[in-house]
Write a structure and sequence with these properties.
Elements lengths: L15 H6 L2 H4 L3 H32 L6 H50 L2 H6 L2 H8 L1 H34 L1 H9 L1 H38 L1 H6 L3 H53 L5 H42 L21 E8 L12 E8 L4 E6 L5 H7 L8 E6 L2 E2 L5 H7 E4 L10 H5 L8 H14 L25 H14 L4 E5 L7 H14 L4 E5 L3 H6 L2 E6 L2 E6 L1 H7 L1 H18 L6
Parallel strand pairs: 3-8, 3-9, 6-7, 7-8
Antiparallel strand pairs: 1-2, 1-4, 4-5, 9-10
Helix pairs in contact: 3-4, 3-7, 3-12, 4-7, 6-9, 7-8, 7-12, 8-11, 9-11, 9-12, 11-12, 16-17, 16-18, 20-21
The structure holds adenosine-5'-triphosphate (ATP).
Adenosine-5'-triphosphate binds next to helix 13.
Length: about 600
C-alpha cells in the first residue's frame, strides 16, 4: 500500500493569487483589525521618511550663519518626536494584528482537525501521519507569522519604497531615475527567484513532513526496533532523510541569499552613482545641499524596506506552499457522509444482513481481484456469529463495512432492514460498536477510554455501565492500578500489556451498548481460560446484542451460535460449528490450521 509522501503534484499547482484568494473567508472577519494594523505600519513608514525632510530643512534653513538656535532645537525636537511616534505606531501595529492572526490560525487548525476526523479510513491509510501533523502545525504557524508580519510589511514596504521614489523624483528627477534604474535587474532576478524558491520551499516542507512521519513511526514501533536490534538501520534511514532535508534547506537559503545579494548590492551601487551625480548637480547649482542630504537620508531609510522586500517575498512563497499543502487535505472530499434524509429505525433488534456485497480497496480497484465478491450473510437479532476463513480472505474488511469505515463497492449492508448508507452516520456508529485486534487506546484515564462511546446517561448509570463493562471484559485488573479506573494510561495505552489493552478495548465496545457488536479477533492476546471467561460473560451481558466476531481460535468458534465460512471473497457455508465440521471440508481444513496455530502459541512457537 502506497503511503502518501506529500510531494508537490507535477501539474495543477495554483497561482499565488488563487492560493491567497482562498484565505478571503477567513480573513474577512478580521479585516478591520488588519486594516488598522496596516494603517499603523504605513504611518510608521511615512514617519520614517519624514525624518530626512526635517534634515533637509535643517541643512537649508537653520545651519547657516543667520540660522536661529531655537530652530535647531525645534528640528531636534521634531526628529526625536517623529522617532517616538514611529515606535508607538510599530507597537500599535503589533497590537492590532497579533490576536486576529492567532485566532485565524486556531480556526483553520480546528477545521483541519475536524476534516481529518471526517475523512474516511482509506484516506488515513494513504497519508503519512507526519504529513498531516506538519500540515496542521507548522504550515499554519507559517501562515500566522506571514499574516501578522509578512503580508503587512510587504505592502507597507512597497508603499514606502514608492513614496521614497516620489520624494527623490520631486527633489531631482536625475537622482530619482538613477535609483529607479536599479529596480530593473532586481525585478528580473525576482522573476527567476520566485520559481526556484517556490519549488525548494515545497520540497523542504514535504520532506519535513516525511521526517515527522519517520519520527512518529520509530516512536510508535520502538519495541519492534529494539527487539530486532534495528536501531542502527532506522538511524541510518532517518539520518539520510534528515540530510536530504538539510540539503533542500541549504538550496533554499542559497537561493534567497543570492537574491538578497542583488537586493542589497544594486541599491548600494545606484547610491554611489547618485553620489557622483548629486555632487555634480550641487556644484552646478541645480540641487541644494539640503536636497542632496535628503536624497541620501531617504535612500538610507529605503535600504531597510528594499532588503526586507526580498525576505518578505521568500516568506510569502513559503506561506503559499504551506497553504497549498493545507488545502490539498481540505479539498479531499469526504466520501462517507450522512445522507440528506437519514432513516434510523427507532427500536430495531439489531438484525444484520449483507446482500451481494462486493468490495475493492480504492488503491487496488481494477488492478487486483476484489477482496469481497458477492457476500450474502444474515445474522439474526441477538445471535453471535463467528466469521472464519483463511488469513487474508477479507474478514476484517467485511467487518469494516458494517459501521461504514469502508464503503461497499456494490451490494448492500443492512441493519434492521435499512441500508447503512441510509442511516445517519453518527447514529449508525452508536448502533455498531467495534473492537479490533490491534487495540488503540488514548492517553487518558481507563474510565474515559471505556466510556468513549457510551450513551449519554446520568452519572450513576454511567458508573454502573462502566463496572459492568469492566467485569464482562475481565478487565478487573484496572481497579488494582495505582489510581484505579482513574489511572491515566500512557500514550496509546503502551503502559499496559497486550492482553490488558485488548480487554479495555473490549470493555469500551461493551459500554457503548450497541445493537450490533463487531469484534475483530479482540481476544487474541488472552489465554484460552480468560478468553472463555470473557466469552461466557459476554453472552450474559450482551444477550440481546447481535455479535459478529472474527475468530482465530477454535475455542471462540465453538462458543458462537453459528459460524460463517469466508472463502474466495464470498460466504461458502453457514451453520453451527458441528454442522460445518460434519459437512464442509474447507471448514475442517481452516479449523485444523487454527488449531495448529493455537498449539504453536501454547507451545511458544510462532503464530502466523
Ligand atoms: N488498505 C488496504 N489497501 C489495499 N489492500 C488491503 C488493505 N487492507 C487489506 N488489504 C488486502 O485485503 C485482503 C483482505 O485483508 P483482511 O485484513 O480483510 O483479511 P483477513 O481475512 O482479516 O486476514 P487475517 O485473518 O490475516 O486478519 C488482503 O489481501 C489484504 O492484503
Amino acid at each position: 500500500m502506497a503511503v502518501q509522501q506529500g510531494h508537490a503534484p507535477a501539474a495543477g499547482t495554483p497561482t499565488l493569487g488563487r492560493t491567497f484568494a482562498r484565505l478571503a473567508p477567513f480573513v474577512k472577519p478580521i479585516l478591520p483589525r488588519l486594516f488598522f494594523g496596516f494603517l499603523c505600519a504605513l504611518a510608521a513608514g511615512i514617519v520614517a521618511l519624514t525624518i530626512p525632510q526635517v534634515l533637509a530643512w535643517l541643512v537649508n534653513n537653520v545651519l547657516h550663519p543667520e540660522g536661529k538656535d531655537s530652530e535647531v532645537w525645534l528640528a531636534v525636537g521634531l526628529v526625536a518626536g517623529l522617532g517616538a511616534l514611529e515606535a508607538l505606531l510599530v507597537f500599535l501595529r503589533r497590537q492590532f494584528v497579533i490576536t486576529p492572526a492567532a485566532r485565524l490560525e486556531t480556526q483553520m487548525r480546528v477545521r483541519f482537525y475536524e476534516h481529518l476526523q471526517q475523512l474516511p479510513v482509506a484516506f488515513h491509510e494513504r497519508w503519512g501521519s507526519g504529513q498531516l501533523l506538519s500540515r496542521s502545525m507548522s504550515d499554519l504557524s507559517l501562515l500566522r507569522r506571514w499574516l501578522a508580519f509578512g503580508a503587512l510589511m510587504l505592502v507597507v514596504s512597497t508603499v514606502t519604497v514608492i513614496t521614497g521614489l516620489v520624494l527623490m523624483f520631486s527633489s531631482s528627477w536625475v537622482l530619482g531615475a538613477i535609483y529607479l534604474a536599479g529596480a530593473i535587474p532586481i525585478s528580473i532576478k525576482a522573476f527567476y527567484f520566485r520559481n526556484t524558491y517556490r519549488a525548494a520551499s515545497r520540497l523542504s516542507q514535504d520532506q519535513a513532513g516525511d521526517l515527522a512521519t519517520a519520527v512518529e513511526e520509530s516512536v510508535h514501533g520502538i519495541r519492534v526496533i529494539k527487539a530486532f536490534g534495528r536501531g542502527r538501520h532506522m538511524y541510518d534511514g532517518f539520518n539520510s532523510r534528515a540530510k536530504q532535508l538539510r540539503d533542500t534547506e541549504v538550496v533554499k537559503a542559497r537561493t534567497l541569499a543570492s537574491f538578497l545579494l542583488y537586493v542589497v548590492a544594486i541599491p548600494e551601487t545606484t547610491l554611489g552613482l547618485g553620489l557622483v551625480a548629486g555632487l555634480w548637480l550641487t556644484a552646478q547649482g541645480e540641487l541644494s545641499v539640503g536636497a542632496l542630504v535628503a536624497y541620501f537620508a531617504t535612500a538610507t531609510v529605503l535600504a531597510g524596506p528594499v532588503e526586507g522586500m526580498g525576505m518578505l517575498l521568500g516568506m510569502t512563497l513559503t506561506t503559499k506552499t504551506a497553504l497549498d499543502r493545507h488545502f490539498e487535505v481540505m479539498d479531499t472530499p469526504n466520501t462517507i457522509t450522512s445522507p440528506q434524509d437519514p432513516r434510523t429505525p427507532a427500536n430495531g433488534r439489531g438484525e444484520l444482513e449483507l446482500r451481494n456485497v462486493h468490495f475493492s480497496f480504492p488503491d487496488a480497484a481494477g488492478t487486483v481481484v476484489p477482496t469481497l465478491r458477492g457476500v450474502d450473510l444474515r445474522v439474526r437479532p441477538g445471535e453471535t456469529m463467528a466469521l472464519v476463513g483463511m488469513t487474508g480472505t477479507g474478514k476484517s474488511t467485511l467487518l469494516a463495512l458494517v459501521p461504514r469505515l469502508h464503503e461497499v463497492t456494490a451490494g448492500r449492508v443492512l441493519i434492521d432492514g435499512i441500508d447503512v448508507r441510509d442511516w445517519d452516520l453518527i447514529q449508525l456508529r452508536r448502533a455498531v460498536a467495534v473492537a479490533f485486534e490491534d487495540t488503540i487506546l488514548f492517553s487518558s484515564s481507563i474510565r474515559e477510554n471505556v466510556l468513549l462511546g457510551a450513551p449519554d446517561l446520568p452519572e450513576e448509570q454511567l458508573a454502573a455501565l462502566l463496572n459492568e463493562a469492566i467485569d464482562t471484559a475481565q478487565a478487573g485488573f484496572a481497579r488494582t492500578l495505582p489510581e484505579g479506573l482513574d489511572t491515566v494510561i500512557g500514550e496509546e495505552g503502551l503502559s499496559l500489556s497486550g492482553g490488558q489493552r485488548q480487554r479495555i478495548a473490549l470493555a469500551r465496545a461493551i459500554a457503548a451498548r450497541p445493537r450490533v457488536l463487531v469484534l475483530d479477533d479482540p481476544l487474541s492476546a488472552l489465554d484460552v481460560r480468560t478468553e472463555e471467561a470473557v466469552t461466557e460473560k459476554l453472552r450474559i451481558t450482551l444477550a440481546g446484542t447481535t455479535t459478529l466476531i472474527v475468530a482465530h481460535r477454535p475455542s471462540t468458534v465453538a462458543l458462537a451460535d453459528r459460524v460463517a465460512l469466508l472463502k474466495d471473497g464470498a460466504i461458502d457455508d453457514v451453520g453451527t460449528h458441528s454442522e460445518l465440521l460434519a459437512r464442509n471440508e474447507h471448514y475442517r481444513f481452516v479449523i485444523a490450521s487454527l488449531e495448529d496455530e493455537d498449539t504453536n502459541v501454547l507451545e511458544g512457537g510462532p503464530r502466523a
